[in-house]
Specification:
This protein has 70 residues and is an alpha+beta fold. It has helices at residues 2-12, 20-23, 29-41, 56-59, 62-69; strands at 18-19, 45-48, 51-54. It contains 5 helices and 3 strands, in the order αβααββαα. The longest helix has 13 residues, at 29-41.
């Protein structure tokens, strides 16, 4: 759980975003994407290919996003 939390928290803070392909090594990427859908619809996160990225709006609540994605 700690590795997943660190990966989500750190990768969402980078311009490259969180790779769902890489996340597979740590957990269920489909479950993560399902949890992320509400943040995508509110434009806090965006999905580009297999990358989940925080938007400018999302950076303001990144701690909440991270906790909700776990």
């Amino acid at each position: 759980d700690l590795k997943r939390m660190e990966y989500i928290m750190l990768r969402l803070r980078t311009s490259g975003g969180l790779s769902l392909t890489q996340y597979k090594k740590l957990g269920d990427e489909k479950a993560l994407l399902e949890k992320a859908k509400s943040f995508i619809s509110t434009k806090h996160l965006k999905l580009k290919g297999d990358k989940l990225m925080a938007t400018e709006k999302g950076y303001l609540i990144l701690e909440k996003i991270t906790n909700d994605l776990l």
